[in-house]
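Researcher: Batch entry, complex prediction.
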Amino acid sequence: MCATCGCGGPARIEGDQHPHHHHGDLPLDPEHARLHALGVPHTHGPHEHGPHAERGHDHGDHDHGKAVGGESRRLIRPEQDLLAKNDAIAAEVRGRLTARRILALNLVSSPGAGKTTLLEATLARLAGRWSVAVIEGDQATARDAERIRATGTPALQITTGKGCHLDAAMIARALDRLDPPEGAVLFVENVGKLVCPAGFDLGEAHEVVLCSLAEGDDKPLKYPTIFAASSLLLVTKTDLAPHLEVDPAVPVTNARKVRPDIGAIRLSARTGEGMERWLAWLEAARGLRLVAD
Amino acid sequence: MHELALSSSLVDALREEAARRGFARVRRVTLAIGALSHVEPEAMAFCFDIVTRGTLAEGTELEIERPPGRAFCIDCGQEVAIAARGEACPGCGGFRLLVRGGEELRLVELGVV
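Model: Structure tokens for the complex:
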């Protein structure tokens, strides 16, 4: 089971014989470190008498009251974010990417919104101008990574098994394997789901949500978390507009109800409509990353 | 189920706290699940009950606090309470809201022996 989030089964990185693992011991948790930094008296467990012992802490426990049955209980306030482990690894990943001036984008959407097709069309237009690498996430098969590799772009497939999302530890390991060059653009195509990927920071610079015209215009209202976490909305498959009763402006209006400052581009990978704007956005985002490391 | 993964993660966190602070069993856990978070409290309670069986937290009483959703309304110029994302500002009916609170997913307190 994934140790960071407990999702079922080990995530496999294509070509990898071992189940994934997470980074070893992380340093002192932030809350504990803060108590030390402020010199606040607090309790330690029996294991932790390091260099701070000479400061003369108060080692008494808080002994608050007795529970039913006369049991003497201690109260402990960890004040720990349940996603702290993933966030810590994501911060490390972010640091690595920034140091190498790599722009990382986390592409999220429902299954079938057109993430892989968009990547194929984007890579065709880039025509080797930039270094690009792709991490693909799916429950099963390496089909998407194979499609990307067919364009001549390095791609690595992560299959999550029963898991429903990618997490930072998976990305960290994939980065070790892919090792994109400095100044590259890294696309992470997340598992096709509108709920689970939302809570898991991968260390990316931007989360980009795709929503196809065929999905209707109210997805942002029904699945607000993931739209609120994204800085850019791509309304895809606009070439289907004549066959659908959907006004392409409405999904954008709805997305702005949950994230007032979300950017929006309507495009069709097939006809090319809007693709220049998407390329311009990528160029601008990459430019920001290149000038500030 | 999403909450199952988080419950497992929570039990791991409890084991780490036990090793760090030197206690044997957990009797009560207080979580803060913000009104705007993507986690469903009932599902969390259900999964927690299952996942803790046979662990140091078996039979633990789970308490869930619900910090309310807070957002800054650009048009009103002040902080307002919202029950869910995508809701209009209770003051002016507008949607230019920047979420400021209610997204937490935090282990607040443990009662241990």
